[in-house]
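Internal QA ticket QA-208
Title: Verify multi-chain structure generation after dependency bump
Assignee: T.L.

Test input:
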Amino acid sequence: MTTTSPPIDFGTRTHSARKANVAGLDALFEPRSIAVLGASSDPTKIGGRPVHFAKESGFTGAVYPVNPKADTIQGLPAFPDIESIPGEVDLALIALPNSAVTDAVHACGRKGVKVVTIFSAGFAEMDENGDAQQQKLVDIARGYGMRLLGPNCIGSMNRRTGAVGTFAASSGVPFTQKPLATVALASQSGAIASEWVVAGTQQGLQFDPWLSTGNEADIQLADVLAHMAMDPSVEIIAAYLEGCRDGDRLREALELAQEAGKPVVVLKVGRSEVGATAVASHTASLVGADEVFDALFQQYGAIRVDSMAEMFDVCYALAIGKLPEGDRLGILTGSGGVGILAADEAGESGLEVPPTSPSLQRDLKAIWPPAGVGNPVDLTAQLMNDPKLLPSFIDACLADGGFDQLVLGVIYMGFLEPWSDLLVNGLTSARAAHPDAPIVVTASTRPEVRRAIEEMSIPVFADISNAVKVMGRINDYARRRREFEDRRASDATATDSTAVLPGLPETMTEVTAKAFISAAGIDVVPEAVVTSAAEAAQAQAGLDAPVVLKIVSPDIAHKTEAGGVVLGVATPEEAAAAYDQIVASARAYDGGARIEGVLISPMVTDGVETIIGVSNDPTFGPVVVFGLGGVFVEVLKDVTYRLAPFGLETAKFMIGEIRGSAMLAGARGAEPSDVEALARALVALSRLADAHRDRLDSIDVNPFIVRPVGQGALALDALVTTR
Amino acid sequence: MTTTSPPIDFGTRTHSARKANVAGLDALFEPRSIAVLGASSDPTKIGGRPVHFAKESGFTGAVYPVNPKADTIQGLPAFPDIESIPGEVDLALIALPNSAVTDAVHACGRKGVKVVTIFSAGFAEMDENGDAQQQKLVDIARGYGMRLLGPNCIGSMNRRTGAVGTFAASSGVPFTQKPLATVALASQSGAIASEWVVAGTQQGLQFDPWLSTGNEADIQLADVLAHMAMDPSVEIIAAYLEGCRDGDRLREALELAQEAGKPVVVLKVGRSEVGATAVASHTASLVGADEVFDALFQQYGAIRVDSMAEMFDVCYALAIGKLPEGDRLGILTGSGGVGILAADEAGESGLEVPPTSPSLQRDLKAIWPPAGVGNPVDLTAQLMNDPKLLPSFIDACLADGGFDQLVLGVIYMGFLEPWSDLLVNGLTSARAAHPDAPIVVTASTRPEVRRAIEEMSIPVFADISNAVKVMGRINDYARRRREFEDRRASDATATDSTAVLPGLPETMTEVTAKAFISAAGIDVVPEAVVTSAAEAAQAQAGLDAPVVLKIVSPDIAHKTEAGGVVLGVATPEEAAAAYDQIVASARAYDGGARIEGVLISPMVTDGVETIIGVSNDPTFGPVVVFGLGGVFVEVLKDVTYRLAPFGLETAKFMIGEIRGSAMLAGARGAEPSDVEALARALVALSRLADAHRDRLDSIDVNPFIVRPVGQGALALDALVTTR
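Actual output:
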């Protein structure tokens, strides 16, 4: 990844813009012909491997080795240059020294190539000269209407069509058996893509098609994701991500995948401080704050995983299994301990483990009296003796209607004869009765037993805790997928609203900042600006409560530091004194500061202190933040983010996902808070931030007091900064 | 597991008690002879399998089938009853119908059998009659000085000696290759033990010896752990635990393992609410609160894991690898992305990822200039081209002295030729130069490559995130092991102290409770008890601060509820009025309550509010709890536990492990708190609780205010209840 700016603007979210970014990408995965510039007769060399792999991949299009020094390359006729090739060339691979690349890209353009993939290194990843040279390549390609993958990349591969666009040795690793689980892969790291392709073959998971974006001079990961979202041959998308230069493009791609109903499983690295530093030094570019990526993935229904192993497990289960319609998990095992392990994990993975219904308990007891008929259901070791027990129990559990999904813990039945036959037969009969039920099996298995179970659309895991964890991730995804249309409609109200939003004030004081957010629909505490001690006394008398006085100055951002705040002023006399004290302190703090007066407002104490705000992320634009005040933000960093704008559904989800959300539900004997009002304020803030995305820098509403249900929520202070 | 009480008391922690509980257990794992009562000629039947397995296990002792209906069983001479056997019998296995078991146990006793294992079911796990019958078996066995495993258990197995004490089919599963990693296993579930033995063979991990304790009528899991701790042939112990009836025995066993320097890896189920309910219904017995188990494992250096997969990974890494001497992790990869994945996980696993030193950076650059020389170190794809690169980089990193352990991410080098040779050769040369360095490799591998690396004491994982997570668990263990002697010496001071502890007061009021803890060395706020409004006014005048007044009555535990508390009393007149108000409220609340006066003490506001206390766990005795006050305890449940008594080291560890510990370090601009004083109070509380373990029910010191460094910490309120 580099700092080179993208060649195609994507400012407006229009269908044509979508098309522009994915234009030509089908030539990467479904080219009719491939030219290899720098083709080698040695099948182990970078220029030789694509030719070698293409001969073995089943590719039915033409492969044209280009090498002025050879007549034939690996048995194929070679051409001295790309323009000598008689037919059309969809995809050209450049395996040439750095110095020869510019001419080669020109030649490809003249030939009418659709996509050129540049393996060669020494561009933006090297130094400024390389960066300039790379930008020139992009300009050349754009001049010909040609797309460019890389440079400094390992290319692309499609086993389905046999289209080889890579020199990665991993492309030569065969599957011993046709994989059942196929997942498209877009990666910003070539090494990661290669490793996953190889490691996938070990676990029955085929990443296909796959691609690595290298320096992303033209084609970005987001473009590839968008292409895959629209490609009907792709059902599930895996992405490895280090950073992103164009947040709108990524957002758009995830939206497309969501519309298409395709799960996107993302491994985004750099979640820790050390990791983020390593990303920065690795990519040498601005990559966006990790929390904002989290918000993005939440908002657009992507499944974020934290490791390769989790990526594989989630992709495998998505590809093999069925999506659940609800959260309720039934646990069936032949061992009490295994059932408890599943229940322990379910609690942490967002799955519900409801008790079995009385009628189900009767049904199960009728089948096998010694069974444990709570949930987890314990079939006891009889599971291994009675061939009818497993299908009968599965059938009873699913027919009862109390569970949306089942996990079976059958310990070593899948490994040892004669029990493995019993297991496969039992599952076959259960599956025939319930063809669409989401079922996951956990067992030690022999490969052929595993395969037989997988062919029934039943994923098999060795470890039940891991299986339930993965089911939890997929359950979260399925829930968000069910809620997608509602959430989208709700978010659309934020975008479509015709309510007039206020313009940015010229100068920013607490008074103008409050007026700004108030005009956007966020309640603020009643207040008056006074310009003398006498006015202060009078204002205090008009308010039936202790008041707070605060300095108003466009030059003083940190009012407390300047001695510009006095709390708990109970009488008119105290108010007059506080006025004088504040003005004196502020003058002492900054003699040149413009003082516009003193703000006087009632103290508000009956409510939960929260913080709402906006920061304008350089990659993703305005991001709304929400957290509880006090120790929650300052000690526990208990905050959550969403990209602006969004609707009420999203706002309510935000409110529910902080760790301290119990505070708003009425913890410690307090009344429940007016979370509806809080949610409306978050939506209003998101609209305001979106409207001013060009000039706004940040909004900080702190504290924002959420009062008991029905009494609303209001800002006690606000700070707005602009660029 | 059952509710039957254990046959041997273990109240006093003496060497003889230790011996009593492990007496005879060597006959389970190293018997000279085995008799099978109910032996069958059918090798697939429960009575046939032990005979069948013993013939194939390499057991060199005698095997005596006992069956009155046969002359020979599976080619061995059979005996009509155990007493007809000519030689001595160390281990007898009972595979008879429930009704025949009592007579058989008698016969075994008369024969002088050392341990009798009862496979038969239908005892305490069934009903009250079964429980009574089981207790009779224990009495019979004890009368003969014979130990008893089970009933309702699958027995024991020792592949090393060939001693077969089980009918588990898993015992017949062969290893295709002699395993490098061998771990002893004690399990409370037969199904779990069988599954792990089978699943282990799939992952190169041999659980041996292993045993399942069934109903635990006599031999408990703790006894087996203690035996394994003392058995020189055992190096690592794995335990599967659902609950515990005798906390002292388990504590003692873990202590023995710690003294012996043997890691104990524990999977304790029931950590979630649903899981705990399932445990309770599965074991039908009191099993101890999960948090207390957590405290126990922390305190005695056991490694708690949450899944079978984690159990296998931790055991494997312990068995294959080397223990680190410190927390500093060096990350070496051939892919930037893989390095970042490792760094991300290290941050969450308690491993430090220090930057490389300038001299190391120079050294690495000298070897391969394009390398990324921060930590993670990125060798780039050159890793796969230059055979000397990997050993040179490993050598430089270890010679530098800045890292205590290394993780290598070599992606698919271990899978594809010719790179796998390069990898093995590179590691061989690095290992020769650094024979004791803790190194972990992450790679896709072929089995023979993996084996070659493991033989260098280098564990191999497929996933780098998982590898680092496991390294983190082992690092925690290694740290606690290094600190063990210090911590033990510190804890011993709590036990050995000769300071006189106060007796339990006769009646419990706030006044006597505070006096009780004060006498134990915990500071309490200065206070006076007044018995009239006039005295209250006088007392207020003598204190230079606002005061709090609280009712003193042995009959009123919840003072606030009774209107018995008034805060912030600033003048003598207010104090007099508050006195009258409190007494009137208390009388209205409970007309029969004995009122001993009103407590008056200064308000203390400068400090961090904490809660310290004791609850007397039915299984493990007094447990000290610590948490921060307010939302930390009430909303976030941010508390930690330790078994009493303990010393300062343990107390400080407790203080550091709560999530909100930053509050005590001086968060939000506050001064750092006097954590030394807090730690001393926790130690004092633990000693007090230990001294009164027989009659104490609970102590609740809330709030306990920790003031700034040097100013101590003091109790503002205390509640003590007795049994």
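Spot checks passed. The first helix of chain B runs from residue 15 to 22.
Status: verified.
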